[in-house]
Specification:
- The chain is α+β, with helices and mostly antiparallel strands.
- The chain has one domain: Dynein light chain 2a, cytoplasmic (Beta-Lactamase).
- Helix content is 35%, strand content 28%.
- It has a five-stranded antiparallel beta sheet, with helices on both faces.
- It is globular and about 45 Å long.
Length: 116
């Protein structure tokens, strides 16, 4: 089972997972089976390959003064996107609209890291 499979198994509201290395290189992307993507695969690859390092890279620069970066949340009308740092990985996931905290807590518990 891959990291993406592991996260998708946590909750049906998680639509898509992107796994990046600690230096923001795309390792794997996985869409939940039976869930129609809101964007095409090329757009997903570009977004997670470019935006994630920009967002997390910029936010990470403040860590020496503010502490470890936990999550970055982006809420659109049709989907919520959350970027989070796990031990030895960076994860971006999209989920159905609604509260993001319960799903982030599930991911944190699974990987034994405080994300909220």
């Amino acid at each position: 089972m891959t990291l993406c499979d592991d996260i998708l198994a946590l909750d049906e509201k998680i639509r898509f997972v992107a796994h990046l290395s600690e230096d923001f290189k795309l390792v794997e992307m996985k869409q939940r089976a039976g869930v129609k993507s809101l964007t095409d695969e090329k757009t997903d690859q570009e977004f997670y390959s470019i935006i994630e390092p920009v967002i997390l890279g910029a936010c990470s620069r403040l860590e020496p003064r503010l502490g470890r970066l936990k999550t970055v949340r982006i809420k659109y009308e049709n989907v919520s996107i959350v970027f989070m740092r796990l031990p030895h990985a960076v994860v971006g996931l999209s989920m159905e609209p609604g509260p993001t905290t319960p799903l982030i807590e599930k991911v944190g518990k699974r990987f034994k890291v405080e994300l909220v």
